[in-house]
Design goal:
This protein folds into 2 domains: 72 residues, Winged helix-like DNA-binding domain superfamily/Winged helix DNA-binding domain (Arc Repressor Mutant, subunit A, Orthogonal Bundle); 162 residues, Four Helix Bundle (Hemerythrin (Met), subunit A) (Up-down Bundle), CATH 1.20.120. Helices cover 68% and strands 3% of the residues. It is built from 10 helices and 2 strands, in the order αααββααααααα. Strand 1 and strand 2 form a beta hairpin.
């Protein structure tokens, strides 16, 4: 770990973990809708963390639409109908254009997340990323499409950024945001799928190597290359589909 990244890495990781634990309590009903969360001082004492960690955790819950803070009063749990979290619905990813648009968003989001991950990653983050790579490799060996392992890798990168917002946005996108999850069943390049997935694996390894080496510029470039390749592949397919439609109209 470099001297520049060490001070920020642990608190941000702790904030993410605290947000997850508080969210679990919300989901399990320990903090029901309308309930007021414990005071900052109480959370600091219970979890043994700093005020900064507590505030970042609360900010993460706010970004996820789980709570709202009323200044001078406290932080309260929102009911599902009051929460307005970012989400991607299935019908929003029904055609190639929609999936390409989402990839453009992911390029902007995940390239910066990868750079932050390279600066802030911990040894535990590296272990999680390595496990995700291993799961992807195993899926390929067993002839599976590795969708879940792919998503797990990207979530591990987001978590390693130390910023809960990155991880929460990826949760909102979910597996539906992976192009082959939505479009794989009728992919005209099906015969080339193994080669494509092997290339994805190589791109993941490049991202991993940059994060492990704590090289933010290399991590940013590797993630951009990875997601841009997916976008360009879909654009190529979109062009093929468009040409086939034109031919179909001409022969009618």
């Amino acid at each position: 770990m470099t001297a520049a990244s060490a001070p920020d890495s642990k608190p941000r990781t702790m904030a993410f973990e605290l947000a997850q634990r508080l969210n679990t309590r919300i989901l399990e009903g320990q903090y029901p809708p309308g309930a007021k969360l414990p005071r900052e001082a109480d959370l600091m004492r219970e979890f043994g963390v700093s005020r900064t960690v507590v505030r970042e955790a609360i900010s993460g819950l706010q970004a996820g639409g789980k709570v709202e803070t009323r200044h001078g009063v406290g932080t309260f749990v929102l009911s599902p109908e009051d929460a307005l979290p970012f989400r991607i619905e299935s019908e929003q990813l029904g055609v190639l254009t929609d999936v390409i648009s989402l990839l453009e968003v992911r390029i902007g989001l995940e390239t910066e997340g990868a750079a932050l991950a390279a600066q802030r990653r911990t040894n535990n983050d590296i272990d999680r990323l390595r496990n995700a790579l291993s799961a992807f490799h195993l899926a390929l060996q067993e002839g599976r499409d590795a969708v879940e392992a792919d998503l797990a890798f990207h979530r591990c990168v987001a978590q390693a950024s130390g910023n809960a917002h990155f991880a929460q946005l990826l949760v909102a996108i979910g597996a539906r945001g992976l192009p082959r999850h939505r479009l794989g069943k009728d992919d005209p390049l099906k015969s080339n799928r193994i080669h494509y997935l092997q290339r994805v694996q190589q791109e993941h390894e490049a991202i991993y190597n940059a994060i492990e080496a704590q090289d933010p510029e290399a991590a940013r470039a590797a993630m951009r290359t990875h997601l841009s390749n997916s976008r360009d592949r879909l654009r190529k397919r979109q062009s093929q589909v468009s040409r086939l439609r034109k031919v179909s109209l001409l022969v009618r």
